[in-house]
Design goal:
Elements: H1 2-29, E1 31-36, H2 43-52, E2 57-60, H3 62-65, H4 68-76, E3 80-86, H5 91-96, E4 111-112, E5 115-116, H6 123-140, E6 144-148, H7 175-185, H8 194-231, E7 236-241, H9 252-255, H10 261-264, E8 270-273, H11 285-297, E9 305-307, H12 319-330, E10 336-340, H13 342-345, H14 349-358
Parallel strand pairs: 1-2, 1-10, 2-3, 3-6, 6-7, 7-8, 9-10
Antiparallel strand pairs: 4-5
Length: about 350
C-alpha cells in the first residue's frame, strides 16, 4: 500500500511539473512586441533594453528595415522583425497622383487631419506597392509583414462610444469604384454627381455596397499575401484591425471599414486589433472583451496592440491603468501583446518596470 501511495505521489508530482513546464512553454511562445519607427541612436543599447523587457518581436518601419546594422544585430539577439506595411494610407503617392484619392459620399477627397487614403480600386497603385513590398521582403530578410491601413478610409482614432454612426464617412464613390460595383452586381447607377450617386446606392443597394466594400479589402489582402509569399513562402503575415465589433456603430466595421475579420483571417497568421482604449475613451476591460469577441471570428490569431501614453487627449494614462490594460491584453485567448510604441515607452521608467514585472 505504501509503495502504491509513493507511486501515486510521484505521478502527481510529475503531472504538476509537466503542467508547469507546459505553461512556461506557452508563455515563451507569446509574441511580446513593440512598434518602432525610427532607427535607434544606439542600436546595441536599445536591443539590450528590449531583451530586458522580454520583447521577442519588433514591428518596424521601412526606414529601420533598410538599416542593415539594425537588422543583423536584431537577428543575432533572436528578435523577430515584422515590417509595417501601410497599404491605402500613402500621402507621398497621393501627392504625385491626386487622381488616386478615395472619394467620400459628399464628393470630397478621403482626407481628415493626417489621414489620407488611396482608392482600393487603383490597381496600378496596388501593383506598384506589391512590387515594392516584394523587394523589401527579398532584400531585408524580415520575418513577417504587418499589413496596416488595409481598409477603407476612416479616422477611427477619433471615434468614441458616443459617436453617431452616421457621421462616420463612407467611401469610395469614385467613378472607378462605382463602375466596378455596377459590373459586379449587374446594376445601372444613375450618374449625375457623387452625392446623388452615393445617396442612390446607399438607399437602394446598401447591403450589396457593404458586401462589395468587404470584397475589395479581402481581394486586396488575398492578392498581397499570395504575391509576398512567392518571394518568401515562410513569411508570417499580420493584419492591423480597426477595434470595432459588428455590434458597434451599426456594423460600421463592415459597411464603412470593409474589414470582415472572419474572412480576412483565412489569409493571415495574426490579427492585431488596435485596442487603444484611452484614445477611444474606453475602459481597460474593453480590451479583454474585444479580444474575446474577435477570437470567435479568428480563433487563436488575435494579438492586441495597446497604447503606452496618451494620444488625442490631455489626460494621461496612469501606471495603474497601463498595468490593467497590459494584463487584459495578455489574458487568454490572446497570443501576446504589441506595445504602441517604443518612442513613447522609452521615456517612461515606471511603465518599463510594469512590463518587467508582468512579462517574464
Amino acid at each position: 500500500m505504501k509503495a502504491l501511495n509513493s507511486i501515486l505521489i510521484i505521478s502527481i508530482i510529475a503531472i504538476v511539473i509537466a503542467s508547469c513546464n507546459s505553461n512556461l512553454n506557452n508563455a515563451n511562445k507569446q509574441i511580446i512586441g513593440v512598434k518602432a519607427y525610427e532607427v535607434p541612436t544606439d542600436i546595441n543599447a536599445t536591443l539590450n533594453e528590449w531583451k530586458e523587457l522580454n520583447f521577442n518581436t519588433v514591428f518596424i518601419s521601412k526606414e529601420i528595415a533598410l538599416n542593415t546594422e539594425f537588422v543583423t544585430k536584431a537577428k543575432q539577439n533572436n528578435i523577430k522583425l515584422f515590417l509595417i506595411a501601410p497599404i491605402f494610407y500613402n500621402p507621398d503617392a497621393l501627392q504625385k497622383h491626386p487622381e488616386w484619392y478615395a472619394i467620400k459620399s459628399n464628393g470630397k477627397k478621403a482626407q481628415a487631419d493626417w489621414v489620407e487614403f488611396v482608392c482600393p480600386s487603383q490597381t496600378e497603385y496596388i501593383h506598384q506597392l506589391t512590387d515594392s513590398l516584394k523587394n523589401l521582403v527579398k532584400n531585408t530578410k524580415v520575418d513577417g509583414i504587418s499589413l496596416d491601413f488595409i481598409r477603407h478610409f476612416l479616422y477611427w482614432e477619433m471615434v468614441t462610444p458616443q459617436t453617431n454612426p452616421d457621421s462616420i464617412p463612407n467611401t469610395c464613390f469614385c467613378e472607378k469604384c462605382v463602375n466596378e460595383f455596377e459590373k459586379k452586381y449587374g446594376l445601372t447607377i444613375p450618374k449625375n454627381n457623387t452625392i446623388e450617386v452615393s445617396n442612390f446606392i446607399i438607399s437602394n443597394y446598401n447591403n450589396e455596397w457593404t458586401e462589395f466594400k468587404q470584397w475589395q479589402i479581402e481581394s486586396t489582402v488575398a492578392y498581397l499575401v499570395n504575391e509576398i509569399k512567392k518571394t518568401n513562402p515562410d513569411i508570417k503575415i499580420n493584419l492591423h484591425a480597426v477595434p470595432w465589433l459588428v455590434s458597434n456603430y451599426n456594423g460600421s466595421i463592415y459597411s464603412k471599414a470593409g474589414q470582415n475579420i472572419k474572412n480576412l483571417s483565412k489569409y493571415v497568421d495574426y490579427i492585431s486589433p488596435m485596442l487603444y482604449h484611452h484614445m477611444t475613451h474606453n475602459s481597460t476591460m474593453w480590451i479583454k472583451q474585444t479580444i474575446d469577441s474577435m477570437n470567435r471570428y479568428a480563433p487563436d490569431k488575435i494579438i492586441p496592440s495597446i497604447q503606452v501614453l496618451k494620444e488625442y487627449r490631455t489626460a494621461g494614462i496612469s501606471d495603474k491603468e497601463f498595468e490593467e490594460s497590459l494584463n487584459n491584453s495578455l489574458a487568454k485567448p490572446s497570443l501576446g501583446v504589441i506595445l504602441w510604441s517604443w518612442d513613447q515607452l522609452k521615456t517612461s521608467k515606471s511603465k518599463k518596470q510594469i512590463i518587467k514585472k508582468q512579462i517574464k
